[in-house]
Amino acid sequence: MTFRGKRPFPRHAVLLLFAVLLHLKVFAQTGDIKGLIRTEKGEPLPGATVILTRNASSFSKVTRTDSIGLFRFSKVPADTGYVIKASYIGYTTHVSERYSVKANDQLSLAFKMQENNGQLSDVVVIGYGSRSRSEMVGAVTTVKKEDFNVGVYSDPVQMLQGKVAGLNISRSGNPNENAAVILRGPSSFRSGTDAYEPFYVIDGVPGASIYSVAPGDIESMEVLKDAVSTSIYGSRAANGVIIITTRKVRSGQSHLSYSTYGAVERISNTIKMASASQLRSYLAANNVTIDAINDDGVSNTDWQKEVTRTGFSHNHNLAFSGSNQQSSYGVSVNYLNNEGIIKGSAMDRLVIRTNVQHRAFKDRLKLDMNVTNSITNGKQIPSQVLSNMLTYMPTVPVKNADGSYYEDRTRTTGTSGYYNPVALINDNTIHSKSNILLINGIATVNILKGLDFTTSVSYQKQRNDTDLYYNSSSMLAQDYTGYAQRTNVSNTKKVLESFATYERRFGKHGIKLLGGYSWQEDRNGDGYQVSGYNFVSDDLKWNNLGQGNGTTVNYGDIYVSTLRLISFYGRAFYDYDGRFLFQGSLRRDGSSAFGTNNRWGYFPSASVGWNIHNERFMKDVNFVNVLKVRAGYGVVGNSTGFNAYTSRLIYGSGSSYFYYNGEWINSLTPIQNDNPDLKWERTATMNVGVDFVLFGNKLSGSVDVYDKRTTDLIGDYTVSTTQYPYSTMTANVGAMSNKGIELALSTTPVKTGKFSWTSSVTLAHNVNKITSISNDLFSASQFYTAAFSARGQSGISGYQIIKEGKPLGSFYTLQYAGKDADGRSTFVAADGTVSTDSTAFTNFRVTGSAQPKLIYGWNNTFRYGQFDLNIFVRGVYGNQILNATRADMNAPIYANTTNVPVSTLSESIKDDKDHFISSRYVESGSYLRLDNATLGYSFATKKNYQLRVYASGNNLFIITKYKGIDPEINVSGQTPGIDNRSYYPKTRTFLLGLNVTF
What we know:
The chain contains seven helices and 51 strands. It has a 22-stranded antiparallel beta barrel. The chain has a five-stranded mixed sheet with strand order 10-15-16-13-14. Strands 3-2-5-6 form a four-stranded antiparallel sheet, with no helix packed on it. Strand 35 and strand 36 form a beta hairpin. It is globular, with a radius of gyration of 33 Å.
């Protein structure tokens, strides 16, 4: 084309003009979206993630709200069908649909996000990530901080007691004693509670000590129950996994919070022992006299009263956090002082925690650093105090006329020793100190859309010191004028983990992939033990061992060991249209603790889920809000409770000597066989569950049925010394099963005006059975455990039995048959005859089980205006307890040398078998306990300020037939359910607390 009289228009200019016009056209066809996100209370919610998508296209934009809750999307193409999705941990995901964007226009929005109420929309923390509950295909229970138990807890796991179906937690009143925890029944019959304890993960750090975190810093705890949920942790997950998430700083917010409480604790129950007058009258009526050394004729000492007190405890937690758009930080300090109800026992703990988070490169790089230091100081009492406060004669004084403690130095009684319990407390000092340092750094890089790579490095060092001093008057060191002992042991744990996650959605299809590597090294037992004795003064205690006339270095069981674990793991999740869910995972673990032929193991799992409520045929079923069915099968392992040399040939000092180079030298002999085939105990679980929310979110819950079978159980078997260097072999032989059903329900029966009532119930039934203890190479008909000494009984291999067809914790005792005409105890012999002499071990039989048939909890929360009242009841049904404490004391023939309970005064003093352990002392362990009642009031304050005061009572009453101090006996470990003269009484607590946030 040409133009007359003018130069032709350049062709490149035409193209440039066309591009400019096109650009203007596109620009003119865009608009903006801005919005404000607030909580239900009207407060801004900074840091919430907002995703903008458009139906039938791959368009997607992501942003976050600023410090005042605002978000903005610029230059959004003009179109219809936009969807806005806002999410924030702790809040229900908000979805708004069918938005239209017009050219050169601005769309303004405002909506509120609701706090999670336990429904299936919750975000759940799982292994190496998180997931909405609607996507869960395993058995996972979440307990948030507002639902934690209230009380004086030195062990954070106690806050879950009774709140999770299938989780059984027991603890005495001893401030220095850890809780015993077991989930869905035992999966091992090895000794030691480590073999039964769940695996703890704290802020992504596997195997971190639960005592490195303060209860006040915990936001939530997830309990992973079945193998589908736990298999990603492989060889350490057979006992379940508890994931602890601590509080993090919310972007754009700054907070200063302080919480505190003060509590008084009293002994909740005592055994009624005979007073001096009752005992003297009983003995006089039977023509029995008390030796003069054990009766001054005037004393009437209540030894339980002498050694117990009202304990005072207090806790303080101060936390400060701040943030901006890129960085955030938090610092918290927690101090707990727990004074035991038995004089001389106490515990205090200081936990300092810091957290720093930083985001860079438009949030594509996230850095997280956590440092925690926990220092625990314990004051402990000799174990003999607990038995002697019951059995010491009330007919003697606490002190002699010269001020020294009364002692009968002519005898000891039973295994505990007959000692003045008050003197035991004051003449012996036992201090312990545990220092735990945990450092963890996490870096996450967003490589591509949906693809993240995370590296986590953690270092944990735990140093345990124990200082002991028995003074020159101590009955525990009668051969010395003062005895001191110091023990120092350090354990370190190093963990490196790297994993990649990929998440993408294609129309109705969604995938989430995980692949990772883990390396761990544990170095344990780095320490020593040294003792000194015969000191010229008690003043320095253990502080200068060189002042004694003798010093001994004794390593005992303290030795250095290094254990390494290397793992590769992967997980794939597929979601079709929010209806059908599929997940598979595989972990390959290698451990240096096991035999050279079996150091590597594979732990797979597979599961499916169906969100029935998302089906079209459910649209008209109005009373169903959520209905999901899920099923899964997986295999996990148990490598906890082993040392690094379990499978190795070990030599130790023998009993013979040989003469070499002019001196006698102690010989070395095998003390443990080599087993190159030793491997993990493996637990396979089939779990089928249903999750539901009904009647407009008024009723929600879940039902789970499981079949958990453990194989390759490890035990010690007798072998021939012609084939092996040592007489026993540690080998994988046994098998065990746990089958059960769990129910969790939550409902809001009333919610009107200012008043609401929320109620939740958990029920769990489990049947445990040992299915095998032999194979082709190693065989045994039974194992005897709980072989403690009992007065008058000798030659007893144990009071519990491990036998095929029986549950773990089966009591093995005499069968009590009542009294004969002379008032003497009789027992059933193996041939069925009854006599007072049928007390040999050959007459023992199974007389009960420590395994409960039902564990339950019932929680109720009432709110009226700014008042709230919580009442929590929990209990156990169907288990038995071997009351060896009662058996030991119920000995009328010894009533002139040790005290007896009031109930024994009705027994014949001629009954020399009354105290023999039999079915008479296998008692019901069922109980119902009003565990907690808390009344609180939240003050109306200025915006962003919170103030709450509350009063709480723990262990307010209990209904039980158990005749001991308390039926909450340890049900974990190899010998559950035994009350054997060493039970620290439980407490009844009254507490006043304050929570304030600025």
